[in-house]
Amino acid sequence: MRWFFFLLFLRSLFPTEIAVTYQFSGGRLGDNLLSYLHAKWFSYKKNIPLIYKPFPYSNELMLDVYETFADVSRPVIRNFKAQGPLHSSRLPILYTCPYFPEDPWELTHHQWFSFPVDWKNPEFRALARQIIAPKKQLDLVTPPSHTLNIALHIRQGGGFDHSHVYLDMPLKLPPLSFYVEGLQKVIALFPNKPIYCYLFTDAQDPALLAEQIQNQLPRPILFDYRHTDNQHDKNVLEDFFSLFQFDVLIRPQSNFSLIPSLIHDYAVVYSPRDFSLYDNVITITETDFHIDYVLIQRLQ
């Protein structure tokens, strides 16, 4: 315990000698943002600086303005702890947060270093929204003002993932039936409300997806999607920030759409929780259907 107070004293003398940074998973924007946000929460709770490590698209975000660059290659004590006092009298100390998912299934079935984040903390949420914002104005999808507006994030691989990746990541690429069931549940909550549904997808043929889904719904709804130039590596930030414009989010366990559901309030969020696999066919067996009844009443 005496070492703990001694370190607190040292920290008052050398406030920048203790900091936190993050590691990447090798994934895309959603994974990188999640790594950053985990370290940002650690920084926020421990009241220590965050050392900013750029990643693709980060130079187009406000975090590139607010955060501190530093040379993290110099010798430091690398700590992977997220709890408790600082257990060393040597400075500098750099806490490093490795990547870990927020998906409960992944956390349960794989060995991850992790710590809890209070995603409902209003101060941290406001901070996250301030720094995860575009530097310049983007051409966002703006839904109509008179409809219930549903964002449907359908990840299919789109030329980035290999053809059988759905067997490795079934909750990230659930079957089309998952989205149909989610839409059916949302439509039942708004029987008299016109509905606008935008497909955020890396699919090569979004029009075919919209047709397949519509054919299985109890009533017609208005579908929309990017009609040209739809690729997995284009319009990334435009699609990401457009997700925040919608009332309802139906998403897979993809960090790209999971992050908006963590730092933004939706009337409904529908996502997969568990699955079964038989003869290379994925079936979603459990889902999460989170309803904000205050927002629901405002929309009805």
Query: In sequence order, what are the helices and strands, one letter per element?
Result: HEHHEEHHEHHEHEHEHEEH
pLDDT < 50 stretches: 1-15, 82-88
Count the E strands: 9
Radius of gyration (Å): 21 Å
Strand order of the largest sheet: 6-5-4-7-8-9
Q: Helicity level, as a percent range? A: 25-40%
- What name does CATH use for the topology of the largest domain? Rossmann fold
Would you kindly provide a brief summary of this structure?
By secondary structure, the protein is an alpha/beta fold.
Q: Can you offer a commentary on this structure?
A:
- Helix content is 33%, strand content 19%.
- It folds into 2 domains: 2-131, no CATH class; 148-299, 3-Layer(aba) Sandwich (Rossmann fold).
- The N and C termini lie far apart (56 Å).
- The longest helix is centred in the first third of the chain and has 18 residues, at 29-46.
- Helix 8 (206-214) links the parallel strand 5 and strand 6.
- The chain has helices at 2-13, 29-46, 63-66, 104-109, 122-131, 165-168, 176-189, 206-214, 236-242, 255-263, 293-299, and strands spanning 18-22, 77-79, 93-97, 148-154, 195-201, 222-225, 248-250, 268-278, 281-291.
- With 300 residues, it is α/β, with parallel strands linked by helices.
- The protein contains 11 helices and 9 strands.
Keywords:
300 residues; alpha/beta; Rossmann fold; 2 domains; six-stranded mixed sheet; three-stranded parallel sheet; 33% helix; disordered N terminus
Layout: helices, strands, pairs:
Blueprint: H1 2-13, E1 18-22, H2 29-46, H3 63-66, E2 77-79, E3 93-97, H4 104-109, H5 122-131, E4 148-154, H6 165-168, H7 176-189, E5 195-201, H8 206-214, E6 222-225, H9 236-242, E7 248-250, H10 255-263, E8 268-278, E9 281-291, H11 293-299
Parallel strand pairs: 1-3, 2-3, 4-5, 4-7, 5-6, 7-8
Antiparallel strand pairs: 8-9
